[in-house]
């Protein structure tokens, strides 16, 4: 009996190790910790897919429930920070305020959370910890936008709600209520939140009805385009956790309210094949062969099929909408945005999105810092807190807060 039990235990250990282990680049931060984290996330995603296929529950709801239950366990930090849940022009936000000092105007950061426009809760866990840390370290008011998410709503709802909240916050009387210096307000976001932050910065920069503008923008591994899923970083990191190429493609389709059966077509760039009538001006905005340096491009080549699926761009026009894909904005729009801090990670499919945007901003005359982490992977900032404590995430949070402290 004991031999049988030992044999079963041994086989189970092998099965678990086989499931957890995936080959990772040598330079990625804390690979074994990342493997365990990724195995857990993959398991939750598979559960969501099974529940969805059986008609029990939408896959996004399953994944989100698991994430929220886990984030609820994260201890609250910086408890001296006061919080207020309020509506900004009908949009739910949470305001974080450090202890007030009479007669002193403070800085402010509007933060927009990531999660593929579909996952997470900005009031819990790592995002709550991050906003509290920004408020404490910067002695700043931090407003996080609790926008509605897919699958309940799709583009442009998320974008519109973030714009509404931003315009409301930037009103003189609202800034005065929170004792905020109107010359010292930044917009910040990570991943899909970086997408929304970039789009909001473009909108506010070109909006003549908004007298107060953002002074800075911080984009943490932002997702900025959906026309090329075979950039050098997509090719290099397509199988690197936690954001696989197929998963990012699915997030895009969920966000745009499109058919998820198109995942494979988008992954092989059928929507931007050589027989598509994309204007050269559009192609040049995401031509990574010219926008990225050789050290980043390495030996990767563009992937565009000779023939594709012309109906995709027709059925999903938002793929060409700069409000959804800020990398596609015209140069005259980019000239109006604030100076930027763009964080990228070497082992992230979205690395080139951020780097291309940094280069386009530079060409438009906008001051840009591209902080690149050779050991970085997607989501590392969210894993800077309990219980993960990834070293690259801790460094990334410290560095971008330090940049804001110096420049805001």
Order of strands across the main sheet: 1-2-4-3-5-6-7-8
Please state the oligomeric state of the protein chains shown: single chain
- What form results from the Cα inertia axes? globular
Helix content bin: 40-55%
**Biggest β-sheet strands, sense, barrel:** 8 strands, mixed
Strand content: 5-15%
Task: Give a description of the structure.
The chain is α/β, with parallel strands linked by helices and 408 residues long. It is built from 17 helices and 8 strands. Strands 1-2-4-3-5-6-7-8 form an 8-stranded mixed β-sheet, sandwiched between helices. It is globular. The relative contact order is 0.13. The mean pLDDT is 94.
What's the SSE blueprint?
Elements: H1 2-20, H2 31-53, H3 59-71, E1 82-88, E2 91-97, E3 106-112, H4 125-138, E4 140-145, H5 157-169, H6 172-177, E5 180-190, H7 192-206, E6 216-220, H8 232-237, H9 245-255, H10 263-267, H11 280-284, H12 288-291, H13 294-297, H14 311-315, H15 331-334, E7 340-347, H16 351-363, E8 368-377, H17 391-407
Parallel strand pairs: 3-4, 3-5, 5-6, 6-7, 7-8
Antiparallel strand pairs: 1-2, 2-4
Helix pairs in contact: 2-3, 4-17, 5-7
Keywords for this entry:
single chain; 408 residues; alpha/beta; eight-stranded mixed beta sheet; globular
């Amino acid at each position: 009996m004991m031999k049988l039990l030992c044999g079963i235990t041994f086989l189970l250990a092998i099965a678990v190790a086989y499931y957890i282990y995936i080959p990772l680049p040598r330079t990625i931060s804390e690979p074994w910790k990342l493997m365990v984290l990724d195995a857990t996330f993959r398991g939750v995603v598979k559960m969501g897919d099974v529940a969805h296929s059986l008609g029990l529950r939408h896959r996004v709801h399953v994944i989100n429930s698991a994430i929220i239950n886990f984030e609820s366990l994260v201890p609250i930090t910086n408890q001296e920070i006061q919080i207020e849940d309020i509506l900004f022009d009908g949009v739910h936000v949470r305001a974080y305020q450090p202890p007030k000092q009479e007669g002193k105007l403070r800085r402010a950061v509007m933060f927009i959370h990531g999660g593929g426009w579909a996952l997470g809760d900005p009031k819990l866990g790592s995002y709550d910890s991050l906003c509290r840390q920004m408020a404490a370290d910067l002695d700043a008011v931090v407003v996080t936008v609790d926008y509605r998410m897919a699958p309940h709503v799709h583009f442009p709802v998320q974008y519109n709600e973030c714009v509404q909240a931003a315009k409301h916050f930037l009103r003189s009387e609202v800034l005065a209520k929170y004792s905020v210096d109107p010359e010292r307000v930044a917009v910040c976001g990570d991943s899909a939140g970086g997408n929304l932050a970039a789009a909001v910065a473009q909108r506010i920069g070109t909006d003549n009805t908004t007298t107060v503008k953002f002074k800075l923008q911080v984009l943490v591994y932002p997702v900025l385009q959906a026309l090329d899923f075979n950039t050098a970083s997509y090719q290099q990191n397509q199988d690197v956790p936690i954001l696989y190429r197929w998963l990012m493609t699915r997030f895009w389709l969920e966000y745009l309210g499109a058919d998820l059966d198109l995942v494979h077509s988008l992954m092989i760039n059928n929507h931007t094949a050589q027989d598509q009538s994309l204007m050269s001006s559009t192609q040049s905005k995401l031509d990574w062969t010219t926008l990225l340096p050789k050290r980043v491009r390495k030996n990767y080549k563009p992937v565009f099929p000779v023939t594709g699926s012309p109906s995709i761009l027709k059925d999903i026009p938002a793929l060409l909408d700069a409000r959804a894909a800020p990398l596609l904005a015209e140069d005259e729009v980019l000239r109006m945005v604030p100076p930027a801090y763009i964080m990228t990670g070497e082992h992230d499919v979205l690395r080139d999105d951020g780097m291309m945007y940094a280069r386009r901003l530079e060409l438009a005359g906008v001051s840009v810092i591209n902080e690149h982490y050779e050991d970085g992977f997607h989501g590392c900032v969210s894993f800077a807190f309990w219980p993960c404590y990834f070293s690259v995430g801790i460094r990334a949070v410290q560095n971008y807060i330090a940049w804001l402290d110096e420049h805001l």
